[in-house]
């Protein structure tokens, strides 16, 4: 905390801005600690406690990770169109907590407490439900917590935003380090029940810190998703042809307001830029498909 104080106060001289920014960073660190604590022991838990084969456990791990990174599209859409970022993060955190509450419930050795032992089928059902809740929760948080943090300091200029994101990605790595170096050890050497209890505490702490300063947050009303705008631009631009002075058809230019369309020129140019980048995204998909195999054993 002292480290954050000395490094942030020169930039964020307003005390309220400092505390809301710090709360968002702590929230992100705890959420990442929670997620990586789950993913670190997922395959081992499946094979050792749920009697799932190595190949199927790996598949579960990959599918879970895939949904975690796809669902933010939905989370961002809901925040931009209907709920706003604060409410989306808050609701997603509650769903997340339900998931991490079910994890230790699936891992506890009930016979040690003189309770009826839970069957493998029961544990599997709890674990599967937990993963669904975690994927939904982290998807809603991941899409919004970074932009929400940037909104708090937008008035301070680009340098302040850059400083925020430097720390934002630093705390992500801190959360991952604690998860892989500490929580994974507890899961393997102590018990999965305690190893899954840590992410539960971490996520409860994340939500508590996040809502503690809710009255100080800068909030913006939902203005509609850029996804909807982008698809509308593509639809309008593809229906009408617009040939420039060179005689060549310009991509989606007929959707521009300056060419008789319904959309601001800079929005259309932005969509065109995204379309041009898409082929390179397939190379990124290939990279991550290979990289993800590191955690497949």
TrEMBL record:
SUPFAM superfamilies: MFS general substrate transporter (SSF103473). GO terms for cellular component: membrane. Belongs to the major facilitator superfamily. Proton-dependent oligopeptide transporter (POT/PTR) (TC 2.A.17) family. This is Major facilitator superfamily (MFS) profile domain-containing protein. Keywords: Membrane, Peptide transport, Protein transport, Transmembrane, Transmembrane helix, Transport. InterPro entries: MFS_trans_sf, POT_fam, PTR2_symporter_CS. It is a multi-pass membrane protein. It comes from Biomphalaria glabrata (Bloodfluke planorb).
């Amino acid at each position: 905390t002292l480290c954050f104080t000395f490094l942030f106060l020169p930039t964020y001289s307003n005390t309220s801005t400092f505390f809301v920014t710090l709360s968002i960073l702590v929230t992100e660190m705890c959420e990442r600690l929670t997620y990586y604590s789950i993913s670190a022991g997922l395959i081992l838990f499946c094979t050792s406690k749920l009697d799932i084969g190595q190949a199927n456990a790996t598949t579960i791990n990959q599918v879970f990770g895939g949904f975690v990174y796809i669902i933010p599209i939905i989370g961002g859409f809901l925040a931009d169109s209907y709920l706003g970022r604060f409410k989306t993060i808050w609701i997603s955190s509650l769903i997340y907590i339900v998931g991490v509450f079910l994890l230790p419930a699936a891992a506890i050795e009930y016979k040690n407490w003189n309770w009826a032992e839970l069957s493998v089928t029961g544990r599997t059902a709890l674990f599967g439900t937990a993963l669904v809740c975690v994927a939904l929760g982290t998807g809603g948080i991941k899409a919004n917590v970074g932009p929400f943090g940037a909104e708090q300091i937008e008035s301070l200029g680009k340098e302040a935003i850059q400083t925020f994101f430097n720390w934002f990605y630093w705390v992500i790595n801190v959360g991952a380090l604690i998860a892989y170096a500490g929580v994974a050890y507890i899961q393997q050497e102590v018990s999965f029940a305690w190893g899954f209890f840590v992410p539960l505490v971490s996520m409860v702490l994340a939500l508590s810190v996040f809502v503690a300063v809710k009255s100080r947050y800068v909030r913006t009303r939902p203005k509609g998703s850029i996804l909807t705008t982008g698809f509308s631009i593509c639809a309008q631009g593809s229906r009408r042809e617009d040939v420039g002075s060179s005689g060549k058809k310009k991509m989606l230019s007929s959707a521009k307001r300056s060419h008789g369309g319904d959309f601001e020129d800079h929005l259309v140019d932005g969509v065109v830029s995204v379309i041009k980048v898409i082929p390179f995204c397939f190379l990124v998909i290939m990279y991550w498909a290979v990289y993800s195999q590191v955690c497949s054993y």
